[in-house]
Design brief:
By secondary structure, this protein is α+β, with helices and mostly antiparallel strands. It has 9 helices and 11 strands. The protein folds into 3 domains: about 1-170, no CATH class; about 175-260, SH3 type barrels, CATH 2.30.30; about 280-360, Alpha-Beta Plaits, CATH 3.30.70. It has helices spanning about 35-55, 60-65, 70-85, 115-125, 135-150, 175-190, 290-295, 320-330, 340-360; strands at about 90, 95-100, 190-195, 205-220, 220-230, 235-240, 240-250, 280-285, 300-305, 310-315, 335-340. A 5-stranded antiparallel beta sheet has the order 6-5-4-3-7, covered by helices on one side. Helix 1 (about 35-55) packs across helix 3 (about 70-85) and helix 8 packs across helix 9. The longest helix has 21 residues, at about 35-55.
Length: about 350
């Protein structure tokens, strides 16, 4: 699809640009003559742009000879560049050739399929998953730059971009922009940092000095894995519970045997203290059997449909605490079959809950 830079009009009260794509009813393997012609024109325009930006002051005869087309074709291409790309093309009579009056100008075009263009148009709606980080601003800037390179011949009009569809992201804790940038810089440059940290079980902050090795983002929540000087071991810290992060001035090298996969389960959770692998086996009641069978719990999972309508799911993970929390949240619809440690942990938690509610 040929995309050109032109002025676009947005509908009133629309939070993002609204686009319209004229859908072509041709098989994927068949290209219409118009589409093929547009691609040929685009290649020529790119070549003309490169020649002009090279400072060689090409004229129509030079370009026609180089691109093996007629002079009139080059003239039409130049007109299209002025019209659709706002190219500041001028002719220098003393040098008998074309040049740009703006040295920084270049052809901004992107060749996208209809599906890719739809994804670009949808992109801004999906940025809500990054609204708690400075990445949201950067990503919106990227989106705007891409959108500015798209023209009216590459637009999309779909209900997925209007208020008839709602996108819901996970509720996310706010992350301080300075903390976010400092931690990323520390990981990238292998620099030790110190910061104040509030553990999940405490209300007060503690000063920690950490050699940050790796950053993990899980479902919109950001964590850094590193060597904690205070604990003298690898720990995971949530960005949202860090404040006043600064560099200590020390640098470090990551141990060759460090592997971030040893400290998290990308499918389940990021509990650093949970490193022992457990074989988990759960039985789901018939009332939520469909949910259990279609849900991806782990890439290692096996799913068994029983004759009584129940479903058994088995997988291996190190994230014992996360699985325990999830099982408790499902109430009577999920029964732990293995391991015995998880059965006992759930039983103890239920006893504590009975004690708590029995006092009322």
């Amino acid at each position: 699809m040929f995309l050109s830079k032109t002025r676009r009009e947005f509908p009133p009260n629309s939070p993002i640009p609204r686009y319209t794509i004229p859908m072509e009813q041709t098989p994927p393997q068949t290209k219409s003559p118009l589409v093929r012609q547009q691609k040929v024109v685009l290649r020529r325009i790119r070549a003309i742009d490169a020649e002009i930006r090279s400072g060689s002051y090409p004229n129509t005869n030079d370009l026609a000879k180089k691109l093996e087309v007629g002079v009139r074709t080059i003239s039409r291409d130049l007109d299209e560049m002025r019209l659709f790309y706002n190219a500041p093309i001028a002719f220098d009579r003393s040098k008998n050739g074309y040049y740009y009056t703006e040295n920084s100008f270049y052809i901004k075009d992107i060749s996208l399929s209809e599906g890719e263009l739809f994804s670009v148009a949808l992109f801004e709606r999906l940025l809500s998953g990054y609204r708690n980080t400075p990445l949201e601003t950067h990503l919106r800037s990227v989106f705007r730059k891409i959108a500015e390179s798209l023209g009216e011949r590459a637009t999309i009009d779909t209900m997925y971009l209007d208020d008839s569809v709602t996108y819901i992201s996970e509720p996310l804790a706010q992350i301080d922009a300075e903390v976010f940038n400092t931690v990323f810089s520390a990981v990238r440059q292998s620099r030790e940092i110190t910061f104040e940290y509030r553990p999940l079980q405490k209300q007060t902050y503690m000063t920690r000095t950490v050699k940050p090795y790796h950053i993990v983002c899980q479902k919109g929540s950001w964590y850094v894995i590193g060597l904690d000087e205070y604990k003298n071991g690898i720990r995971i810290f949530a960005f949202s519970r860090i404040k006043n992060a600064t560099f200590t001035g020390n640098t470090f090298s990551i141990p060759e045997d460090f592997d971030w996969r040893d400290y998290i389960d990308a499918d389940i959770g990021v509990w650093a203290s949970a490193q022992k692998p457990y074989k988990i086996r759960l039985r789901f009641s018939a009332e939520i059997a469909t949910f259990a069978s279609e849900h991806i719990w782990s890439r290692t999972q096996t799913v068994t449909q029983n004759d009584d309508g129940t479903v058994e799911v088995a997988f291996e993970t190190t994230q014992f605490p996360e699985v325990q929390r999830w099982v408790l949240g499902q109430g009577h619809t999920v029964e732990v079959l293995e391991p015995p440690e998880l059965i006992e942990a759930v039983r103890k938690e239920l006893e504590a809950m009975m004690t708590m509610y029995g006092k009322r």
